[in-house]
Amino acid sequence: MRIAPAFNFISRFRVAHLVVLSGVIALTACQDVTAPEPVTSAAPSSLRLDRAAATDELKQLGSDMDTMTGWSLISLTDGQIRSNIVGILNGLKGHLASGRIDACQDDVTQGRAWFASLTESQQSEQGNIGVTLDLIQSVLDNASQ
To answer: Is residue 77 assigned to a domain?
Structure first.
């Protein structure tokens, strides 16, 4: 019989200890700020950073241009069609490397005009050039904002 009261006392002490510890943890957790952070407008320096990042992305696209379009140019027959697009793509590659957005936009417009002049069969064979022009256009749009 002596064991029961001692056990009862220890379990009450543990329960009280657990309640106090839970209270301390709850009070500590309530000290943290849970409100949303205030929204601030973008500073002009961050806009310059975004433009610099877009220019870096344009330079990366310029270095990857041969990989993106080179294999599809193989299927074009030698002639005026091939020389036109090779000239446009080489000019675009140079303008991308220099970061000249206005010249890149002109090259993309010329490339789209060339792509539109192809037959439907040729457009399907040269689809990756169209996709490359779309990708460059989206980067140019982001850079000009």
So the answer is: yes
Reading the chain (145 residues) residue by residue, the pLDDT tens digits are 455 556 666 677 788 888 887 877 777 766 656 666 666 665 554 444 456 666 778 778 777 777 777 767 777 776 777 788 888 888 888 888 887 888 888 999 998 998 888 888 888 888 888 888 888 888 888 777 6
**CA angle, residues 78, 137, 67, in degrees to nearest 5:** 45
Tell me whether residue 24 is in a domain. Answer: no
Rounded alpha-carbon distances, angstroms, from residue 100 to 16, 51, 79, 128, 139? 72, 12, 29, 23, 12
Do residues 103 and 69 lie in contact, with contact meaning Cβ atoms separated by under 8 Å? no
* Total domains in the fold of the chain: 1
Cβ contact 62:97 at 8 Å: yes
Range of the domain at 136: 48-144
DSSP state of 75: T
4, part of any domain:
no
Asked if the structure places residue 29 within a domain, the reply is no
